């Protein structure tokens, strides 16, 4: 299993946000992985099985998702910087998305 996973839910439509392109980057901007959310809004295989403790960035291409779902969004991208502090733990970073707001948290 990937060290980092994500899940995107479209709060405005009340369903998973499928087809959202997601990129995982290192702190210095190197692309470590890229994928798109599946029909359940999840990316279960995003990057390596192990990462060193450091700061990483997830970038969600929400403009593509909104265009494909017939919505107009205010945020063309959602960028989340997070710090991986424990090389043994799994990090799940979900996003609750709507055209004019988003939120995130450390999931399990």
From TrEMBL:
Main EC class of this protein? Answer: hydrolase
Q: Which reaction does it catalyse?
A: 5-hydroxyisourate + H2O = 5-hydroxy-2-oxo-4-ureido-2,5-dihydro-1H-imidazole-5-carboxylate + H(+)
Q: Which GO terms describe its molecular function?
A: hydroxyisourate hydrolase activity
Q: In which residues is substrate bound?
A: 7, 42, 105
Keyword rRNA-binding, does the record have it? Answer: no
Alphabetized, the UniProt keywords read: Hydrolase, Purine metabolism
What EC number(s) would the UniProt record show?
3.5.2.17
Q: Provide the Transthyretin/hydroxyisourate hydrolase domain boundaries.
A: 4-107
Q: Signal peptide: which range, if any?
A: none
Might you name a Gene Ontology BP term for this protein?
Answer: purine nucleobase metabolic process
Spell out the InterPro entries in the cross-references: Hydroxyisourate_hydrolase, Thyroxine_BS, Transthyretin/HIU_hydrolase, Transthyretin/HIU_hydrolase_d, Transthyretin/HIU_hydrolase_sf
Classify the source by domain of life: Bacteria
**Keyword S-adenosyl-L-methionine, does the record have it?**
no
Subunit structure, per the record? Answer: Homotetramer.
PANTHER family registered for this protein in UniProt: 5-HYDROXYISOURATE HYDROLASE, URICASE AND TRANSTHYRETIN-RELATED
Q: Which family does it belong to?
A: Belongs to the transthyretin family. 5-hydroxyisourate hydrolase subfamily.
User: What is the stated purpose of this protein?
Assistant: Catalyzes the hydrolysis of 5-hydroxyisourate (HIU) to 2-oxo-4-hydroxy-4-carboxy-5-ureidoimidazoline (OHCU).
User: What's the protein here called?
Assistant: 5-hydroxyisourate hydrolase
Recorded source organism is Glaciihabitans tibetensis
Phylogenetic lineage: Bacteria, Bacillati, Actinomycetota, Actinomycetes, Micrococcales
């Amino acid at each position: 299993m990937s060290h980092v996973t994500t899940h995107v839910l479209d709060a405005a439509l009340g369903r998973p946000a499928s087809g959202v392109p997601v990129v995982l980057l290192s702190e210095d901007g190197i692309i470590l992985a890229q994928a798109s959310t599946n029909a359940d809004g999840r990316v279960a295989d995003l990057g390596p099985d192990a990462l060193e403790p450091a700061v990483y960035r997830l970038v969600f291409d929400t403009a593509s998702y909104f265009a494909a779902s017939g919505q107009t969004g205010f945020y063309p991208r959602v960028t989340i910087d997070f710090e991986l502090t424990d090389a043994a733990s799994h990090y799940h970073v979900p996003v609750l998305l709507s055209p004019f707001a988003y939120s995130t948290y450390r999931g399990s």
